[in-house]
Design a protein that fits this description.
The chain has about 400 residues and is of the alpha/beta class. Helix content is about 45%, strand content about 15%. The chain is built from 16 helices and 13 strands. The protein has a 7-stranded mixed β-sheet with strand order 2-10-9-8-7-3-4, sandwiched between helices. The protein has a two-stranded parallel sheet with strand order 1-12. Strand 7, helix 8 and strand 8 form a beta-alpha-beta unit. Helix 2 crosses helix 12 and helix 8 packs across helix 10. It binds 4'-deoxy-4'-aminopyridoxal-5'-phosphate. The site of 4'-deoxy-4'-aminopyridoxal-5'-phosphate has 12 residues, from helix 5.
Length: about 400
């Protein structure tokens, strides 16, 4: 008998399963609105020109080698990533109480951060928004958290944030609960709190002695502006919170498979930094020993070079603007067709995703009759919309909703 005979088949991961169904579909008009990855208006993946250029320079540089990086990664990368998040002139950086750790993309940063909070600070309860990026749950459980709770976030009737529900749930959270907050471009709803709402969230987190854990997977990609997209994190840091923030460079650099991420940690005082860093070092050492070089080197080269940095900012504006124009194009078409319901949320939502409000039955209909692939929740990746398929998509949604 096999030792593996009793292993149960795990559930499929929806987003990968639906994507595969689309890839396998031979229909010429199929539309893939599943995986969160940027596509050009031709529906193709995009290697940012500034990334290509930097890779060429790296390939030609005979001084580079394949030696191991330190356990906490490239210092030039992690400090640039932390500056990008907090703003280069933030006092927390000058005071030496904010630092970064290079991680295996945003997911790795979430894991290292969660594991530190669970092992070192003995936190055991985490909250995520309902709905949220579904992987938060698995990552936090695997990192040692034992208590999972949700705070209300989505108001389905009004297709907006259920802010009073959110505040009520946070107010009821036990002390030291870790609150996962999407820094910008909330996945999957595309709805972010206003500045005023963020201030209120911060008030409750402070009053109830909760711990803010930001997840920043879309800085710059959401609005096209790095500062705007970091507003919430900077607001908390300026108010004196200790916090951690997982940063992903998958979307804003188009470096999905290179696994480039950073965990920024902000402490009250720099005297605690060496001890904290030493414990993070042990977590990483025991998990994967040290991070890969290629993507971190690209990002650090670009962020640390003023000319390349400008070229990169142009790239993120290009991506953000294409998404914004697809949002308004889709809304206009649905309104012109007289599709029942309101569609303003398509343009008020921000980032890669839109929570359309389509029901599971409507989603099924879109997949089966129109070969338009999206998640059961009605979440669509706006990057899958192009000027070639936008009319077809609007018509498919219209006929489905009618
Ligand atoms: N958090 C959120 C909210 C995300 O949407 C994503 C990417 N889908 C991630 C974290 C992590 O992505 P990655 O590990 O590829 O950086």
């Amino acid at each position: 008998a096999s030792r593996f005979a009793d292993v149960k088949l795990g559930p499929p991961i929806e987003v990968f399963a639906v994507n595969k169904a689309c890839v396998d579909d031979p229909h010429p008009d199929k539309v893939n609105l599943t995986i969160g990855a940027y596509r050009t208006d031709e529906g193709k993946p995009w290697v940012l020109p500034v990334v290509r250029k930097t890779e060429r320079q790296m390939a030609a540089d005979e001084t580079l080698n394949h030696e191991y990086l330190p356990v906490l990664g490239l210092e030039a990368f992690s400090s640039a990533a932390t500056s990008m998040l907090l703003g280069p002139d933030h006092p927390a950086i000058a005071e030496g109480r904010a630092f970064g750790v290079q991680t295996l993309s945003g997911t790795g940063a979430l894991r290292v951060g969660a594991e530190f909070l669970s092992r070192q600070l003995k936190y055991s309860t985490f909250y995520m928004s309902n709905p949220s990026w579904e992987n938060h749950r698995l990552v936090f459980f695997n990192a040692g958290f034992t208590e999972f709770r949700e705070y209300r976030y989505w108001d389905a009737a009004n297709r907006t944030i259920d802010f009073s529900g959110l505040i009520e749930d946070l107010k009821a959270a036990p002390e030291n609960s870790v609150i996962i907050l999407h820094a910008c471009a909330h996945n999957p709803t595309g709805c972010d709190p206003t500045h005023e709402q963020w201030e209120k969230i911060a008030d409750v987190i402070k009053e109830k002695k909760l711990f803010p854990f930001f997840d920043s997977a879309y800085q710059g990609f959401a609005s096209g502006d790095l500062d705007k997209d970091a507003w919430a994190v900077r607001c908390f840091v300026s108010r004196g919170f200790e916090l951690v923030c997982a940063q992903s460079f998958a979307k804003n650099f188009g470096l999905y498979n290179e696994r480039v991420g950073n965990l920024t940690m902000v402490l009250k005082d720099k005297q605690f930094v060496p001890q904290v860093k030493s414990q993070v070092t042990l977590i990483v050492r025991g998990m994967y020993s040290n991070p890969p070089n290629h993507g971190g080197r690209i990002v650090s080269t670009v962020l640390n070079n003023p000319q390349l940095f400008e070229e990169w900012k142009e790239c993120i504006r290009t991506m953000a603007n294409r998404i914004l124009s697809m949002r308004s194009g889709l809304k206009q078409r649905l309104q012109a067709l007289g599709t029942p319901g309101t569609w303003d949320h398509i343009t008020t939502q921000i980032g890669m995703f839109s929570y359309t409000g389509l029901t599971p039955r409507q989603v099924e209909h879109l997949v089966n009759h129109y070969h338009v692939y999206l998640l059961k929740s009605g979440r669509i990746n706006m990057c899958g919309v192009t000027s070639h398929n936008i009319d077809y998509l609007a018509k498919a949604i219209h006929e489905t909703v009618l």
